[in-house]
Amino acid sequence: MNLTEGPAPHHVADGAARSPHARAAHASPGRPAPPESWEGSGEGPGGAEEGRAQALPPDHTQAILETTKEVGAVLKASGCPFALVGSVAAYAHGIPVRLQHDTDFAVRREDAELVTRSLRERGIRIVEPPEDWLVKARAGGEEIDLIFALAGRPVTTELLARAPTMPVDSVHMPVLAPTDIMVSRLLALSEHHCDFGALLPVARGLRERVDWARVRQETADAPMAAAFLYLLELLDVLPRGDAAA
């Protein structure tokens, strides 16, 4: 997750280990997958320069969207409330983020057993991590996080009820509301994980749809959040000083 919604960092994508067929499936639209003989090696067209380009994290956007739709369909059929969160939620709200890591869903802790059983019945592999605030799963080579707490705050019925139902690559599902996206992302910032560069385009893209007064109130005790909100004022994304309240 990353744009995680929890304190844990994103997982490294496993694109380098994919088969030729999978590489073709994960190629960027309009651009064919590189030949197996020089993928990530610096050989072939472009030499060392091409090798450096191939070393960049692969774009898994369409593959992650397919996994998101599959899991979303299972969660809807389970009858349990849920919401799409993280980078894919920002993508659903129209933010042009590049999906590379995983897809994240917020679910209530009390629904964990039913949700994981529903996913297993669909053939999705469940992994029990050491963390007690999420369950991990895997489908189609992509990772899935089922999150019970966003930035240390339990996922509640009220939080999920605020999530609007939106199309995610043609499949409708609940997506975390813009204000809740910003609150959870800001509270996840810490001295060890403080990437303002990744969060800035999200804030800019969502600014007209965010209740910034509530964001300030709910993040008042978080110094990294205060620093980011001040940066938004300096960049004229938000009005300065008392006018922002």
TrEMBL record:
Region (Disordered): 1-54
Biased composition (Low complexity): 25-40
InterPro entries: NT_sf, NTP_transf_5
One Pfam family this sequence matches: NTP_transf_5
Gene3D superfamilies, sorted: 3.30.460.40
Listed SUPFAM superfamilies: Nucleotidyltransferase
Annotated TM spans: none
Name the UniProt record assigns to this protein: Nucleotidyltransferase family protein
